[in-house]
């Protein structure tokens, strides 16, 4: 299998950092946040950074081992990343607990840091919110220190950093930045090594979301909505062309700008195929769909029409079917995403979802997936209880009444739930499991809760210390 990347940075520097995505390359190299950190650190004189993934145990840039880097930056985007981070440290003979590490700085960032307290005994520093400027400020201070690990209090002045050793009870402010920086060196895969966006430049057109759906972390906890102007996007792409090689551009953003059609047209005129991994119903029109030319268009009805309105998505079923009929003219498939187990969900809601899918299948080839609702911190639904038995019955009902749908593993979703809304006691349970090679399964988490080894959901709600 050929591994061919364009846009890779191989740089010699005195301060060598490791950038670890605790999942496989396919997922990690498709993460734009990873490219941000990769560029920011490499842009800094005297610093370099090299990437590691679960399936790349040595760095991609120099094939060096993780233990040879003094600062280890972990990107946390999903709950299982917490477990994988600990496993990576152990596999590389790096002590898991902060108090036992003499040299290595363990630093975390990413959306999961809206509740960093699960790993409160592990990391030295957590970046909260946007890190474009706080990371530069961190590097500036780091370069002046003889022993950053033992001079960690020097970083306390930086807004957007949580340092457990210093911020014992303090409230931590999330950092929010304007979109005036974008990575230009994006390592893009051109070989046979599969990733989610082969030969594709990831272009962030917006950040945040104008909707505040009750279940969603993005609209409630990851900062206000911001977008880039068309002229800026064109300039980013042209500058990116000088540093890497790509055929396609993926527009990244949970909520697309109102000028989306103009943006697509202008970027297409540069000779690139445009893809939109995330589309809202209002983004789909006679102009957009034929121009992007995607074989599959993804829609997220989420639930029944009535429950959809209760959670903050005010689209009627007939609006969805108007768009599905439009999609049929230009694409082969529609993919539908649903959440089951939302607060207030009744039998009639499941029946309406099932009928929705059946009706869509009469119009176009339809792929459907269901995810059990996992409550997130800082959202209106953070206090909702994940009822495993009830969800299991609902899952059975769905699969009995409609075939060929994908449903996320319920046991895995429960583990996500515990990590998402857990406190430092959950972290200690996971640390102990990794240290002792114990299988961290649904059963083991459930037993720990029953024995009150962990108190869940966290009564203290430690995540409230993060100022959102």
Automatic annotation (TrEMBL):
The organism named in the record is Candidatus Methanofastidiosum methylothiophilum
Stretch forming the signal peptide? none
Q: Which UniProt keywords apply?
A: 4Fe-4S, Iron, Iron-sulfur, Metal-binding, Ribonucleoprotein, Ribosomal protein, S-adenosyl-L-methionine, Transferase
What Gene Ontology cellular-component terms does the record carry?
ribosome
Question: What protein name does the entry list?
Answer: Ribosomal protein S12 methylthiotransferase RimO
Q: Does the keyword Zinc apply?
A: no
Domain named Radical SAM core: which ranges? 195-408
Give me the gene this protein comes from. Answer: rimO_2
A Pfam family (short name) is Radical_SAM_N2
Identify which cofactors the protein needs according to its UniProt entry: [4Fe-4S] cluster
